[in-house]
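Researcher: Re-running this chain for the archive, since the previous output was lost when a drive failed. Same request as before.
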Amino acid sequence: MGQTSGKLYDATTQKTWMGIQRAYTEVTMAKVDFSQPTGNESDEDDDEKEEEAGGQRRTVEEDVRFESYKPSKLKVEGMLPHPSDAVENGTLATVAPPDVTYKLNIAEDMPHVISEGRLSDLQLEFVTYACQRHEQRLASGSRRGFFLGDGAGMGKGRQLVGLQCINQMSRRFFTAKSWPPRHRRDTSSMGLTG
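Model: Regenerated structure tokens:
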């Protein structure tokens, strides 16, 4: 192990360095044009080439298309649609989701969750694919994971509570002794005790 050389700065020196860093950041941020998310806002050569070709510069937002999204492979009798519209990137829309191989027993074990729409079709799709993935094992013997990357308004808390319920019924993992208030709220909104 090596030793570090040097000394700690006193409070005055630290404030001075922080002021220099803050000023540098402010000057740098003032130079950036955030209205062009492509990052090419100062590239004059590209501008000239586009003008010669008769085209206009396109931003990232203009190049991205979104498609309406509904679960295509999950079939649970009585499941209700998600209360808000969901979209996915147009490129992702060209790829079919994996086949559903997991039998979701939530309709039999907790019918109110389906019949009352406590979990929507999109939320049930997440629970199903996550459980399907958790049944698989890595080379180390650990269970495989599943990434939840949904945006705002999709009900991630409810999705996680649904996943927790299924995993508890399948005895796949133990739960924490104390949960944050959001978890208790989502557990209660699903008609479960938390």
